[in-house]
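Posting this for the archive.
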Amino acid sequence: MPTAIFGSIEAGAIYALMALGVYLSFRILDFPDLTVDGSFVTGASVAAVMIVGGYNPFLATMTALLAGFAAGCLTGLLHTKGKINALLSGILMMIALYSINLRIMGKSNVPLLSEETAITKLTAFWQGLGIDQAIQSLFGALGMGFVPKTWGILILMLLLAFAVKVLIDLFLKTDIGLAIRATGDNETMIRSFSADTDLLKIAGLGISNALVAFSGALVAQYNGFSDVGMGIGMIIIGLASVIIGEAIFGAKTIVRATLAVIGGAILYRIIVTLALRVEFLETGDMKLITAVIVIGALILPKLIQQQKDKQRKRRRLAEAKKTNAYGKSGEHLAAIKSDS
């Protein structure tokens, strides 16, 4: 169990980059972008093919990021210049990317187990620092049974996710970032200020899918393969991470919201890992588990809020009845009763 939980936290840190991309399109731009299912694989396939072709894995990962940016911009062009519905634009781009990804890879699966990837390079760099030995000695002295082979992937991926989070926070406070946020909140108003909302949407979707493809490239190198079907349902996983994070950690400010997304991505992986430990659930139930998690994250906060509203109303009624008992006006009591 501890090994599975540790692995889920590692994977959650990598998928957090994808969730941050989904947060940009879904929350900031208010754009239901289904391109994610395709651009995630685009990132994985570009990185895998370049690594197999002998390119530096870090160069391959950055190229994957650019490929994702291009895919997001194309979705934005379909919506803004082609005047195609937002949802349909994403679906069309997702379908197109399926064939494009097959073209890039030349087959449905590219293995990376025998290749030197960014993950293996980062792990080797970390192990060279000697920090693992120090941590394992500490764990051994404390008598803890579970000690992971290396902390490198977890710590480095968490650092990467937090670095991207800080960059997003800073970007959304720039003039362009504020304009993108305003476009998502009220496009008509921001257009009345002569802002080019089409360009802002295209840029926002490009950045969103760049992060998704970046995550896809790292996931492929982490798992040791790129597969044309690895992006199916990725948008739901991203949404689940965003919704779970916001429900638990809150989203009053941008800084808190992006932090919540990272936490949500890690929590989602832990929840799925624990769910798969249930005897009657199988690996094939992954999508069902994801759907149930999202439904729970959407419904539970509303039910909790309704209970809080009812309790508050009962307190106000009790206070009003007490006031009325001393001969004061009952108008306030009637107003509270009519307040739903």
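The beta strands are 109-111, 225-227. The mean pLDDT is 86.
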